[in-house]
Amino acid sequence: MEKYEHLIGGFFGGVTSTIACHPLDLLRIRYSANDGNPQRPQYRNYWHATRSIVVVKGCKGLYQGLSPNLIGSAVSWGLYFQFYHIIKNICVEKSISIGAEPVDNVLLGMITGAGILLFTNPVWVAKTRLCLQYENERTKYSGFLHCLRTVARNEGVTALYRVHFFLPTRRGFTPGVIGTVHGAIQFMLYNRFKDDRLKRLGLPPNHILDTVDCLIYSGVSKIIATTITFPYQVLRTRLQDHHAKYSGLMDLVIKTYKMEGMYGFYKGLLMGNLRQLPNVVVTYVTYENVRPVKTVTGSSKYRTLSRYAE
């Protein structure tokens, strides 16, 4: 069981954070997708958006798209933590490195993230489309599986992958891994903060990070990564939106800049950080405390968050 400690910790961290933060994610998606089209609901602020959704659909309206978000987050975080450490250990054993640890960590994160997207990208497409079923329109997708089937049938299977994996070029399409930079930057910063902290305390690298330190380092690393890569999140959301029609990524970039300027690439940034901050803090704290840790005698046991709730 111990060899799956990163998988278990990441899985439970992803589930916990998603349940707690999904309404914030829904608001972020709606703000990022709003290109000024008058057919969309126009919200004056986040509170007005929340009230508008609750009045029509009740509190459950804030949890549209929860099912794919739960699946995607649990699988993504679990596999990311697990395979990141597997690949990292292989690189250490084989002495594979370009000579700069921060760059090594970013590249490891990108490779890990790109592989995981093969499994999770259709889930994120479904989540975005379910979140963008507005109160003033007929329901197009009845649920997660219905959304996947409908998109695959009407738009082709490639529609479930076009956003993350395909960028338009003269010859058609080539693989793209822009989105993996976000997680790579975040994980690299978090690991750097964590390693430096443990060194200052004279503790071994595999020691469980103190909860307060985990809160601070996970939050700071996420804010930095989110702010740097947020334009990509806006572009991803708009390409996945079934209301908008763009011929490709460059068409979207040009139209967004012409109609909204640079501000258009940062719509929803505040809610993005507000959503990401508690999300990643819960995920990392859960991950650090749910995964098994070696005791002095060499046995393995699970720490839970309950010890910090006293």
Describe the structure in your own words:
- The chain has 310 residues and is mainly alpha-helical.
- It has a single domain (2-308), classed as Mitochondrial carrier domain (Mitochondrial carrier fold, Alpha/alpha barrel), CATH 1.50.40.
- Helix content is 65%, strand content 5%.
- The strands form 2 sheets. A two-stranded antiparallel sheet has the order 1-2. A two-stranded antiparallel sheet has the order 3-4.
- Helix 1 (5-33) crosses helix 3 (66-93).
- The longest helix has 31 residues, at 101-131.
- It starts with a helix and ends in an 8-residue tail after the last strand.
- InterPro entries: MCP, MCP_dom_sf, MCP_transmembrane, SLC25A32-like.
- It is found in: Membrane.
Instruction: Write down how many β-strands occur, each being a DSSP E stretch of 2 or more residues.
Output: 4
Number of domains: 1
Distance between the ends: 28 Å
Low-confidence stretches: 165-176, 292-310
- pLDDT averaged over residues: 77
Solcar repeats: 1-90, 100-196, 209-293
GO cellular component, one term: membrane
Keywords: Membrane, Repeat, Transmembrane, Transmembrane helix, Transport
Membrane topology: Multi-pass membrane protein
